[in-house]
């Protein structure tokens, strides 16, 4: 009793560590009461027991251990700091509790694991339980499997990650212990409830008897999906909802059921198979053999390997090229089918990783559709469909468009059918206007094809597109089709069934505005304002012409919708492109113009327009102006009014006061009325003639600007510049260029015909008059604000003296941003008011619209197999020669399309890893050229070629790394960051233990991420490697990781970043105590670095 009285005086935490088991038992009992009594989960009292909880569960005395487990469970349930003990406590449960004979101990151990999951530590618990499956004690293995099963049953597949569980499941069926096999069977049944058939592929290799037993159990399961019955602390809203449903005994809604079961991809549960090393060593020799039997043997060997559902990533370039050659050139159609199946297998097994090779093989497959044998066509369809899923329609669009004009109807038919199948996998986001517009244009041509199978395929593709993105988005591209064809497209759209029961992108497919739109148009004349009285007494011909004009005019009046959008005669389809939205009218005769003007202008005004007395003409202009200012804009006959202004003496007016008034009235009519391009054509000549006039030039420029607002600046500028350079008046030319430079700043650069302006600017630069040359250089400076460096490429052939002047002007613009537009075209403003969202906007890519204006050359025909062979030659001199030729081709073309052949990217990628560093740098220079020349089209080459630039950042030579970073920045400037962050490519690069690569990459990410509004979710894949870099032995890597850390959290959020730290482990648990403590401190420092800046922000 003396001993008892001695430890009875100790505090609770001291009792829990006492050598006497009775003391510990008493300590655990008191601790349990204390834990149940403390109401504040953040009480400092909890901190005293942080280091003791593991001892609670691993007590050597069975009786004390039971009470310790109860106390530990209470601690985990109530203490805010309990999560910090997850790893060590669950590890203790696995090794010291699950091997106990008492069922109560195992039950409490399982409850502890489940409670840790409830407090958001599912990943750590799961990792420890999976480690327990490697234990030699079968009791521990059985208990771990049972704990996993219960966790899945209660929390569901969204909380318990199934991939690692399924990965080890088949191994458990091979156990010698029947108890392990039986528990594995129960776990397999539970997993099947949540993911259904996705579990079948990973278990195909288990014993056939066991598989049969599983099949029998699976059949017995109810078809309804299971429900999550236990919830995380962060899911209290779901818990309340679940309890409410249970209380009223109601059924879960379909939406809730769908949300309850996390969609699991069977592919993600599979182990990747490495097949490149298993290929026959003589494959590449046999595939070139003259005997078809040998080629068949080689292909069949590869086909067997590609049947593996998931393939290990690797360099498949040579294999893909060999298969492509068979598909494109082999005369034996049976071998073509086998090769196509191999390509389909590679695409299915590699998924997104095959996207690198997609552009290389798709053109060949499309061309091969000329074959008519069903088995070949089917194999090619399967191959191209599988390949499509590895890339995007945007990346393939140029290859598809290239064959849409093919003379072979089979190729056109299959290309359209491929588009129809591809559209089904798209959404409104993945099928933007920029991609859809050219494809629809090509399909519309095929709608009129002479071959019925081609027409039907085109209708099907257009109907599918309409179903996916909605009628409103597609209709602007169908303006030229008659009603029968439109109805056929809508009929096809109604028949389309999207995968997974997805709904289409718009409500328009079910509505039929086309049938209802014409009646209002027909009634429009009755609804419009009453015609002027004087026109009733005109001759019948004049009256007829006038009625025609009024009918058109009244259509113009109702043309724009409530928010300013015009309605087409084809059935109310909204057209978003400027050409389709513009106001159009026919030219009016002089008689009709006078009659219409007489209805809105005072008689004295019309009589004095051509008076010989300038004062009377001035008085007439003043009356004219007052009439226009007070006139109802809805009935203003703009063309008739400007034709009256052009009446003799018209634009040859000699009195500057009258001319100033006349030019001002033109601007007034433009701004107040519905001014068309037909009306503009009447006055542009006169305005251009006066733009250089000292007294009237300002008014002329005002008129030009007003026409720009009415008819769009691109059209106005093109007309004006062509007119002025048809003259020989240098003053007019110089002032026109000055006006245009200012107008670009006011209106912005959208829609400008760059190619046309470049030619006229070159003419101006060669002018003898210095004022014209100066104005041209000033205009180039403004264009440089919008176009940047690519603009200079158009003038590289100019004389050095002139080029230096241009460079000096560009230098002035360096660092300046284009001003925000101050003026807008009326139609554009109306579209903005309507909230038009049809235009695709790039968040992080710079200037796509501007770059798209540049005329581009297709250089794919110059990328010959001979050139590619040179780039890949064993002799470095020949490789250099190939690179020189490539650089020359790009330099000569200046601006190129995205189509550079499928083999050139792979060849250049190979040179980035060249042993000759000079060639590496030359390749980087070519890639910089490529970025400037290709522009935004470069996006489709990011995965195939761009990621390899990142790899070069790990080179040991500073000059090579600098060149790689310069190249990378040049690419990102054109592509934006989104494509780089998608997928696991960047995380794989960051995973490499290369200090140069890590510090360069992290510095680059720290610079780019803050400028992005959103990031792909795949950025999360980089976080574990970022944490590793925080404790890298290289100081520069640690520094860059610390700089990058806030930028990651800016997008991913505190919760995700904090959750990822739960995977950080203290390494080498079996090292000596001192070393273990050091590593523990290191682990804590890593966590502190992760969140130090967050605490700083909170303060």
Task: Please identify the structural class as seen in this structure.
Answer: mainly alpha
Q: Judging by the overall fold, what is the CATH architecture of the largest domain?
A: Alpha Horseshoe
Our estimate of the beta-strand percent is under 5%
Largest sheet: none
Helix count, DSSP H or I runs of 4 or more residues: 58
Number-wise, the strands total 0
What is the CA-CA span between the terminal residues? 55 Å
Rg: 38 Å
The H-level CATH homologous superfamily of the largest domain, spelled out, is Leucine-rich Repeat Variant
Average of per-residue pLDDT values: 81
- Give the overall shape, derived from the CA principal axes: elongated
- What number of structural domains do the residues give? 4
CATH top level assignment of the largest domain? Mainly Alpha
> Into which percent range does the helicity of residues fall?
55-70%
* Uncertain stretches of 5 or more adjacent residues: 253-262, 507-581, 828-849, 1066-1084, 1093-1099
The CATH topology of the largest domain is given as Leucine-rich Repeat Variant
Oligomer: single chain
What report would you give on this structure?
Helix content is 64%, strand content 0%. It starts with a helix and ends with a helix. The C terminus is likely disordered. Helix 38 packs across helix 40. The protein contains 58 helices and no strands. It is elongated. With 1099 residues, it is mainly alpha-helical. InterPro entries: ARM-like, ARM-type_fold, HEAT_type_2, TOG, XMAP215, XMAP215_CLASP_TOG.
Write the layout of secondary structure elements.
Layout: H1 2-8, H2 12-16, H3 21-37, H4 53-57, H5 62-78, H6 86-96, H7 103-118, H8 122-132, H9 138-155, H10 162-172, H11 178-195, H12 208-220, H13 236-248, H14 254-260, H15 266-269, H16 283-286, H17 292-306, H18 317-329, H19 333-350, H20 355-368, H21 374-388, H22 393-403, H23 409-424, H24 433-447, H25 452-469, H26 471-474, H27 483-495, H28 513-516, H29 518-527, H30 540-558, H31 578-581, H32 590-598, H33 603-607, H34 614-630, H35 638-645, H36 656-672, H37 677-690, H38 697-711, H39 713-724, H40 730-747, H41 754-765, H42 770-787, H43 800-813, H44 826-833, H45 848-852, H46 865-871, H47 876-893, H48 903-911, H49 917-934, H50 942-952, H51 958-975, H52 978-981, H53 985-991, H54 995-1008, H55 1023-1030, H56 1035-1052, H57 1054-1061, H58 1073-1098
Helix pairs in contact: 3-5, 5-7, 6-7, 6-8, 7-9, 8-9, 9-11, 10-11, 11-12, 17-19, 18-19, 18-20, 19-21, 20-21, 20-22, 21-23, 22-24, 23-25, 24-25, 25-27, 29-30, 30-32, 32-35, 34-36, 35-36, 35-37, 36-38, 37-38, 37-39, 38-39, 38-40, 39-40, 40-42, 41-42, 42-43, 46-47, 46-48, 47-49, 48-50, 49-51, ...
């Amino acid at each position: 009793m003396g001993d008892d009285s001695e430890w009875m005086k100790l505090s609770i935490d001291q009792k829990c560590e006492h050598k006497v088991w009775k003391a510990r038992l008493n300590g655990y009992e008191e601790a349990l009461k204390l834990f149940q009594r403390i109401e504040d989960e953040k009480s400092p009292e909890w901190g005293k027991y942080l280091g003791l909880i593991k001892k609670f569960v691993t007590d050597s005395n069975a009786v004390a251990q039971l009470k310790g487990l109860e106390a530990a469970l209470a601690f985990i349930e109530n203490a805010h700091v309990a999560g910090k003990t997850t790893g060590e406590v669950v590890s203790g449960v696995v090794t010291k509790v699950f091997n106990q004979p008492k069922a109560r101990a195992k039950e409490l151990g399982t409850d502890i694991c489940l409670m840790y999951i409830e407090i958001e530590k599912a990943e750590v618990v799961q990792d420890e339980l999976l480690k327990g499956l490697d234990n030699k004690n079968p009791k521990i293995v059985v208990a771990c499997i049972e704990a996993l099963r219960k966790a899945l049953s209660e929390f569901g597949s969204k909380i318990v990650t199934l991939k690692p569980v399924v990965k080890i499941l088949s191994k458990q069926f091979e156990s010698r212990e029947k108890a392990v096999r039986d528990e594995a069977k129960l776990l397999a049944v539970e997993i099947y409830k949540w993911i259904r058939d996705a579990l079948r592929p990973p278990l195909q290799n288990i014993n056939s008897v066991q598989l049969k037993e599983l099949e029998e159990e699976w059949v017995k399961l109810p078809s309804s999906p299971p429900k999550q019955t236990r919830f995380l602390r962060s899911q209290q809203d779901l818990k309340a909802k679940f309890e409410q449903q249970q209380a009223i005994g109601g059924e879960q809604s379909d939406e809730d059921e769908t949300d309850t079961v996390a969609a699991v991809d069977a592919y993600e549960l599979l182990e990747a198979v490495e097949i490149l090393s298993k290929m026959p060593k003589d494959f590449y020799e046999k595939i070139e053999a003259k005997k078809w039997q040998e080629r068949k043997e080689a292909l069949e060997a590869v086909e067997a390997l590609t049947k593996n559902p998931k393939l290990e990533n690797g360099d498949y370039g040579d294999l893909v090229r060999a298969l492509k050659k068979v598909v494109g050139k082999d005369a034996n159609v049976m071998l073509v089918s086998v090769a196509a199946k191999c390509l389909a297998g590679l695409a299915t097994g590699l998924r997104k990783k095959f996207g690198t090779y997609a552009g290389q093989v798709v053109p060949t497959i499309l061309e091969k559709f000329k074959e008519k044998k069903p088995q070949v066509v089917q194999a090619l369809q399967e191959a191209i469909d599988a390949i499509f899923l590895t890339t995007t329609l945007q990346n393939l669009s140029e290859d598809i468009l290239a064959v849409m004009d093919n003379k072979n109807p089979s190729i056109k038919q299959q290309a359209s059918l491929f588009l129809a199948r591809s559209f089904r996998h798209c959404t409104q986001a993945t099928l933007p206007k920029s991609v859809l517009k050219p494809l629809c244009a090509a399909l519309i041509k095929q709608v009129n094809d002479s071959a019925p199978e081609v027409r039907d395929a085109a209708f099907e593709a257009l109907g599918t597109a309409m179903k996916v993105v909605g009628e409103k988005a597609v209709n602007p591209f169908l303006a030229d089709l008659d009603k029968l064809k439109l109805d056929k497209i809508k009929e096809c759209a109604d028949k389309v069934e999207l995968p997974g029961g997805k709904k289409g992108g718009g409500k328009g497919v079910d509505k039929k505005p086309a049938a209802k739109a014409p009646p209002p148009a027909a009634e429009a004349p009755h609804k419009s304002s009453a015609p002027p009285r004087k026109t009733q007494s005109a001759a019948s011909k004049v009256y007829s012409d006038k009625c025609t004009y009024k009918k058109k005019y009244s259509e113009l009046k109702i043309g724009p919708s409530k928010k300013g959008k015009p309605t087409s005669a084809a059935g109310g389809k909204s057209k978003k492109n400027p050409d389709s939205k513009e106001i159009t009218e026919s030219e009016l005769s002089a008689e009709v113009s006078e009659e219409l003007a007489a209805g809105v202008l005072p008689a004295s005004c019309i009589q004095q327009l051509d008076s010989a007395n300038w004062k009377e003409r001035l008085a007439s202009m003043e009356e004219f102006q007052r009439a226009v200012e007070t006139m109802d804009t809805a009935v203003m006959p703009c063309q008739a009014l400007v034709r009256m202004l052009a009446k003799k003496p018209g634009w040859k007016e000699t009195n500057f006061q009258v001319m100033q008034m006349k030019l001002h009235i033109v601007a007034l009519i433009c701004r107040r009325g519905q001014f068309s391009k037909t009306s503009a054509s009447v006055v542009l000549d006169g305005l251009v003639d006066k733009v250089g006039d000292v007294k009237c030039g300002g008014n002329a420029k005002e008129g030009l600007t007003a026409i720009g607002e009415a008819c769009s600046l691109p059209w106005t500028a093109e007309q004006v510049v062509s007119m002025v350079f048809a003259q020989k008046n240098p003053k007019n030319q110089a002032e026109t260029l000055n006006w245009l430079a200012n107008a670009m700043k006011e209106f912005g650069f959208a829609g400008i015909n760059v190619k046309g302006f470049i030619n006229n600017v070159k003419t101006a630069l060669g002018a003898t008059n210095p004022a014209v040359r100066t104005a041209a250089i000033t205009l180039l400076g403004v264009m440089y604000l919008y176009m940047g460096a690519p603009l200079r490429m158009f003038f590289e052939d100019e004389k050095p003296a002139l080029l230096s002047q241009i460079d000096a002007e560009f230098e002035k613009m360096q660092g300046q941003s284009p001003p925000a537009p101050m003026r807008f075209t009326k139609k554009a403003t109306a579209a903005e008011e309507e909230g038009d969202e049809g235009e695709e906007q790039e968040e992080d890519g710079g200037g796509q619209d501007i770059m798209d204006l540049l005329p581009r050359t297709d250089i794919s025909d110059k990328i010959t197999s001979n050139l590619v062979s040179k780039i890949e030659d064993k002799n470095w001199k020949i490789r250099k020669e190939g690179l020189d030729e490539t650089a020359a081709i790009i330099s000569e073309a200046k601006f190129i399309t995205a189509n550079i052949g499928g083999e050139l990217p792979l060849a250049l990628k190979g040179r980035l890893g060249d042993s000759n560093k000079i060639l590496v740098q030359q390749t980087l220079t070519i890639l910089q050229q490529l970025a400037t020349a290709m522009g935004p089209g470069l996006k489709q080459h990011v995965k195939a070629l761009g990621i390899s630039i990142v790899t070069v950042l790990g080179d040991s030579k500073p000059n090579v790394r600098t060149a790689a970073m310069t190249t990378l920045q040049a690419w990102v400037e054109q592509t934006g960051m989104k494509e780089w962050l998608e997928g696991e490519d960047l995380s794989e690069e960051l995973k490499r233990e290369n200090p140069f690569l890590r510090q360069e990459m992290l510095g680059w990410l720290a610079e780019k991420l803050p400028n992005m509004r959103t990031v792909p979710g795949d950025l999360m894949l980089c976080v574990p490697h970022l944490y590793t870099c925080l404790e890298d032995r290289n100081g520069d890597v640690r520094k860059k990781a610390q700089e990058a850390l806030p930028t990651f959290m800016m997008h991913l959020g505190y919760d995700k970043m904090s959750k990822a730290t739960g995977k950080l482990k203290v390494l080498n648990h079996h090292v000596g105590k001192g070393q273990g403590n050091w590593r523990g401190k290191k682990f804590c420092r890593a966590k502190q670095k992760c969140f130090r800046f967050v605490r700083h922000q909170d303060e």
